[in-house]
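Entry 12.
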Amino acid sequence: MNQDHFRRWFRLLALAEGTTVVLLFCVAMPLKYALGDERIMPLTGFLHGVFFMLFLSALASAHRVEGWGWARTALWFVAALVPGGTLWGERRWLGATPTPGADHRLD
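Predicted 3D structure (tokens):
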């Protein structure tokens, strides 16, 4: 897999993981605990779990195959543990238009 193709997949998984965790915390959990409606919780939780595991697999691949350093890998792992962290990381570290003069590399 070439680097551009991998970067697109990694970005997609980061967005999917971040979006599903935001949906879980901001939609499904309030519906369950505030309104007593549990219908959306199993699907949202399942989707987040799938995307979280896929993201961690892609992160391990990035470290091993793409040669990402330990610092970069650790920062992405911590970002995955924080709700919405991969959304922030995607914009900060993978954004198509980096801020002029800023160094967005982590290695």
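Annotation: The chain has one domain: 3-89. Residues 3-35 form the longest helix (33 residues).
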